[in-house]
Specification:
By secondary structure, the protein is α/β, with parallel strands linked by helices.
C-alpha cells in the first residue's frame, strides 16, 4: 500500500514507520525539519515530506491509499500549553482529514489515548470503546475534543475512519522520563529504583503491538464509509504497575533493588485503566 504518515519521528510513529517499511509498503512521512529522525533505526528511508500539520497541502497526499495520523502534542509526561494542545491535537488533526479528503483519500487511521476516558475508567472492570469521555487532564481533553470533531467529519463526508485509543505503551526510544525508560535505565546501571505503591492497574502494551493495530487498520474490511470504528489498543493483559515493574526488572537482570512505597501515589490518580479489546483481530499477546 501507499501510506501517508504523520508523527513518524515520534515514539509510536517510529515503530509504525519501521514496520510499514519492513513490510514493503510505500511510505510518505511528514517531519518538522530535515534533521528530525525516528527514535529507532529504520531498514531504509521513507519519502520524507518536511513541514507541519498546518502547512499540509493536498498535493503532498495525492496517490496515497491511507493516512496514519499519529502526530500529537503534550503526550505525558511532556508538557504543552492549552493553545498548543488545541492547535496540534484538535485543529491539526481535523486538518489532516480535510486535506486528505481533498487529495481523494478515503481511509484514515488516527491515534487517540486512554486519557480521554478519565474519570469514566473507575466505573469499569474493562473500559468499552463507547464509554463516556470524562478526561481529567489537558492532554486527554484535547484528544477527546479532537475525536468528536473527527468522528462527525467522517460521518458527514462518508470517510473510512479508524480511531485507536492507546493504553500504556512502552519500548526502546520512549521519552526518557516515562516510567519504563526510567526503570530500564536504573536496572541497566545497577541502581535501586524508587517508585510509588504501584497498585494502579493498567494494560502495558509494547509499541510493536500498537504499530500492528494502525498498519492493519489501513486495510481492515470492517471499517466502512461513514461508520467510524473506535477501538482500544492494548496487550489484552491487565496488571498492576508493581507487577509490571517486577517482571521487567527480572527481564533486565537488574542488580539493584526495586523499591515500591518510596514515592507517594498521586491523590487524583485513576486506580484502574484497563481496556475492553473485544472484537479486535490483531495479535494482542503480551510481549516483554
Amino acid at each position: 500500500m501507499r501510506l501517508f504518515l504523520t508523527g513518524g519521528t515520534g515514539f509510536i510513529g517510529s515503530y509504525v514507520l519501521r514496520a510499514t517499511l519492513a513490510s514493503g509498503h510505500q511510505v510518505r512521512a511528514l517531519r518538522r525539519s530535515s534533521t528530525a529522525r525516528p527514535v529507532i533505526d529504520l531498514p531504509f528511508e521513507p519519502e520524507w515530506i518536511t513541514g507541519t500539520l498546518q502547512t499540509l497541502d493536498p498535493s503532498q497526499m495525492v496517490g496515497v491509499d491511507a493516512v496514519i495520523h499519529l502526530a500529537s502534542a503534550g503526550v505525558s509526561p511532556k508538557q504543552a500549553s492549552w493553545v498548543e494542545l488545541v492547535e496540534a491535537n484538535v485543529v491539526g488533526s481535523l486538518r489532516v482529514l480535510e486535506i486528505g479528503e481533498l487529495a481523494g483519500i478515503r481511509r484514515f487511521a488516527m491515534a487517540g489515548t486512554c486519557h480521554e476516558y478519565g474519570a469514566t475508567a473507575d466505573r469499569y472492570e474493562k473500559i468499552p470503546p463507547n464509554a463516556a469521555l470524562e478526561p481529567l487532564n489537558s492532554y486527554g481533553a484535547s484528544k477527546a475534543a479532537a475525536f468528536q470533531l473527527l468522528r462527525a467529519f467522517a460521518l458527514e463526508r462518508g470517510l473510512e475512519l479508524f480511531y485507536g485509543r492507546i493504553f500504556s505503551a512502552y519500548a526502546d526510544g520512549q521519552y526518557e522520563k516515562n516510567f519504563w525508560p526510567s526503570l530500564r535505565k536504573a536496572a541497566l546501571a545497577g541502581e535501586d529504583f524508587l517508585m510509588s505503591s504501584g497498585q494502579q492497574v493498567s494494560d502495558f502494551v509494547p509499541a510493536e503491538v500498537v504499530a500492528e493495530y494502525f498498519i492493519e487498520a489501513c486495510s481492515r474490511p470492517d471499517i466502512k464509509a461513514g461508520n467510524p470504528l473506535v477501538v482500544n489498543i492494548g496487550s489484552g493483559t491487565a496488571s498492576t504497575l508493581l507487577s509490571f515493574a517486577q517482571q521487567q526488572w527480572r527481564n533486565f537482570e537488574a542488580r539493584g533493588n526495586l523499591l515500591p512505597n518510596h514515592l507517594l501515589d498521586r491523590p487524583s490518580q485513576i486506580r484502574r485503566y484497563v481496556p475492553d479489546l473485544s472484537g479486535l483481530s490483531v495479535s494482542t499477546s503480551q510481549q516483554s
